[in-house]
Design brief:
about 110 residues; mainly alpha; elongated; about 0% strand
Length: about 110
């Protein structure tokens, strides 16, 4: 039958399998917490690739920033941020209520 060494190895294997399952669950939780930061990093990388492919956009942005001055630029940036957040909230509400169907779901 089985020797003591084989039984010990089988028990060790069983403990290792259980530990691996627990560690896999912990990694899944960590991965879930990192989903949004990774998505944000992907968007930043995409924006960087766009600017690299279209350098004139960065030149226009810098030119507008210089012409507007710091005070007006911060005011405009704040207005743009507020408008963007409002657009996201209204769009999300409209999709949840079925008022607008998302193009991605078609």
């Amino acid at each position: 039958m089985f020797t003591e060494q084989q039984v010990a190895l089988a028990l060790r294997k069983e403990r290792l399998i259980v530990n691996a399952g627990q560690q896999r669950g912990e990694l899944a939780l960590i991965g879930e917490r990192l989903r949004k930061p990774c998505a944000l990093a992907d968007k930043v990388m995409d924006a960087g690739r766009y600017v690299k492919a279209h350098p004139w956009t960065a030149g226009i942005a810098v030119g507008v920033a210089v012409l507007m001055g710091r005070r007006h630029l911060f005011r405009l940036a704040g207005f743009g941020w507020t408008a963007w957040r409002a657009w996201r909230v209204v769009g999300g509400f409209a999709r949840q209520t079925g008022f607008i169907k998302s193009f991605k779901n078609k």
